[in-house]
Amino acid sequence: MNKKTKLDNLSQTHGKIEKYECKTLDQILGDDGTSKYKTLDLEKYKEYLYDLNKSDLQSHASKIGLLPIDNRELLSKRLIKEFEKYTSSYKLPKLEAREIKLDKKARDVLAEGR
Question: Can you list the alpha helix ranges (DSSP code H) found in the chain?
Answer without folding.
Answer: 25-28, 34-37, 42-51, 54-64, 72-90, 104-111
